[in-house]
Amino acid sequence: MWKVENRKVGNTVITADERQVEVSFIVPCYKLGHLLAECIESILLQSYRDFEILIMDDCSPDSTPDIAKSFLDPRIKYIRNESNLGNLRNYNKGISLARGEYIWLISADDRLRRPYVLERYVRLMEDHPKVGFVFCRAVNLINGQEGRVLDYGDRGGRDRIFGGHDFFFEIIMQGNTVVAPTGMARKECYERVSLFPLDLPWGGDWYLWTIFAAYYDVAYLAEPMVNYRRHELSMTDALVRDNVRHCAESDIEVPRRIMAKMEEAGFPALAKRCRQAIAYQYSNNIASREYRYSSAWSHYSMSLGEFEDSLFQVARNPTEQKYIRARAYAGLADRYYGHADFVHALEFYRRAAHEEPMMLMVWMKYLLLRLGHAGIRFRASLWPIRQMIRRIKNARESGVVT
To answer: Helix, strand, coil % (nearest 5) of the chain?
Structure first.
């Protein structure tokens, strides 16, 4: 038992408590008063009781104050900002006010769907002190009805502890694979590594999960224990709807910024992986509209001229430009190949090989495609072997295999 002194963050005073809590739920809320009660009630139903809830009202012009104040549980603290801070400043303010050893940031429109999820999370973190954060699968919630388990947060049907660098290698290439409201992190991750970068409203959580993995292991629980709500007021939908180009640029900026951090920290293999991720994201953005992975992006694609202009700003020297350009072309060729557009695939394999002649895999793909149907069938037969080689290579580069 130890006493926590009163502290002031901005104009908000957090009063002293007789002991530190184990978990702090940060619940940002803006124009979500009609959903807030459902979120808070799902937390109050948890079997693990040692937590606080900080409702971070970012000047909502709705019923948020009345809903928040209707809860009489002393573990709930209602904090209304004097002015609208925006999502990321509000997140960071909540984190700075939190007294818990663990931070769970869950938006007011999401909810916990199992009463034992917090207990499972805390026990896991206590049993594995090298784990920086834990997450699970999420179930979509649309118009109040549960849908399917979200694909992008699905890491398989069994619980796992990932080596941090191994997880880093995967998430930096794939994009964010942690559904935001499912993640609970040690507060020290935010204090020692990073808070949310204020200029990355799209990709800020991807940035944090990735950079945390450079320093900590990562835990995954396969059971889907959280609901992620999709609706027109959700932050994700609003960002894509309002400025899809900025979202696409952020997909490049996140690995670029992490690359610089990894070089400073002395992690050359992780920095190299970031360069590969930049190229991969460029290939995403150049891909024709009909090849985009989501209909929300269907009205955006980057021209080759825009790619060159962006690459000139992102790459620090001509050598890095050629490295990224070659891999962006190769990734684009793979996308065309996957959609049976063999004419464009052949062209971009050729361009990639021209930029970096020592890319033997690109040459092999190019030559097999030149052989026509026989080459295509042969390449298909090599797929399982290539997957095994890639896993071994990634493990070696991340230090898992010596």
So the answer is: 50, 15, 30
DSSP string, 211-259: HHHTTSEEEEEEEEEEEEE--TTSHHHHHHHH-HHHHHHHHHHHHHHHH
Task: Determine the Cα–Cα distance for residues 59 and 260; give it in Å rounded to an integer.
Answer: 36
Q: How many domains does the chain have?
A: 2
Q: Are 86 and 139 in the same domain?
A: yes
CA distance 271 to 261: 8
Same domain, 194 and 253: no
If we measure between CA atoms, which residue out of 303, 388, 319, 331 comes closest to residue 355? 319
Q: Are 91 and 28 in contact (CB under 8 A)?
A: yes
Residue 227's DSSP bridge partners are: 111, 139
The predicted model scores a pTM of 0.85
Residues 95 and 199 in one domain: yes
pLDDT, tens digit (0-9, with 9 covering 90-100), for 106-131? 999 999 999 999 999 999 999 999 99
Q: Domain check: are 207 and 263 in the same one?
A: no
**Backbone CA torsion sign across 13, 17, 20, 25:** negative
Cβ within 8 Å of residue 389, ≥6 positions away:
none
Residue range(s) defining the domain that contains residue 132: 12-237
231 shares its domain with 260: no
